[in-house]
Amino acid sequence: MLRSAGVGVGDEVVVPAFGNVEVAEAVALVGASPVFADIDPDTYCLDASAVETALTSRTAALVAVHRFGRPADMGALHEVGRRHGLLVLEQGESEAPYDEIAQRRQRAAYLDGKLRGVRTPGWGDGHTYQQYVVRVPGNGRPDRDAFARAVRGRGVECRVPVKTPVHRMPGFRRCVSLPETERAADETLALPVDASLTKRDMQRIVSACNALGGLLQPAF
C-alpha cells in the first residue's frame, strides 16, 4: 500500500514502536524511514498528538495499528492526516466470529469486576479483547515479570504482549522519547479470556492474581 501510494526513498512514515516490527520493516522495504511516535496509554495505539509532534517536512504517511482488539482513534488520526496532507493507513487484526467475541467480552467483564491490585483494561468502544491486557503496578518490569512467574506457578497461562519496543531493536534503534511506550512494555501482561475457558478457569485466574496483591517485590 505504501509503494502503490508513491511512498519511498526520502520519505518518513510515522509508526508505533509498541508492537510488531513488521510495520517498521514494511516502511524500510519501500525505502522510506520509520519514525516512531508514542501511544495512548489506554488503547496502546498511536496517540494523535504524539504523531503531530513527530511530523517533519519529509513525513508522507502514518500507519495506525489496532492493538489487542481495541481500535485506534482513527477520527483523530485522519484529522492529523487531513491537516498535513498525509496518507493514513491502518493495520487491523484478524476478526473472530461474533459469538466468540461476545464470550470474550463476557469473560473480560468478569475479570474487570473481580481483579484487584492490577489495572484492568476496562470497557472501550469496539473492544473485542483479542488480548486482555492488564498493567502490573510497581517499579516496572521486575515487578511485572515476578508477578507473571507467580501467576504461572499457580497454573494460569499469561504472556508479556510486547517484550521489546521496536525502537529498541537492532536496525531500528532510535534516540527518541516514548515514555508511554516504555511504560507499557514494562508493565503490561496478557491474561487469558479465550471462549473455551470455563467458570472454574476464570475463578482460578482471579484467585491467582488476587492472592499476590497485585504488587510483588522486584525479582533479581
Automatic annotation (TrEMBL):
Q: Care to name a GO molecular-function term for this sequence?
A: pyridoxal phosphate binding
Record keyword DNA-binding present: no
GO biological process terms held by the UniProt record: polysaccharide biosynthetic process
Q: Which InterPro entries would you find in this protein's record?
A: DegT/StrS_aminotransferase, PyrdxlP-dep_Trfase, PyrdxlP-dep_Trfase_major, PyrdxlP-dep_Trfase_small
Q: Which Gene3D superfamilies match?
A: Aspartate Aminotransferase, domain 1, Type I PLP-dependent aspartate aminotransferase-like (Major domain)
Coiled coil, from the record:
none
Q: Which UniProt keywords apply?
A: Aminotransferase, Transferase
Source taxon at top rank: Bacteria
Q: What is this protein called?
A: DegT/DnrJ/EryC1/StrS family aminotransferase
The organism named in the record is Streptomyces rochei (Streptomyces parvullus)
Q: What is the lineage of its organism?
A: Bacteria, Bacillati, Actinomycetota, Actinomycetes, Kitasatosporales
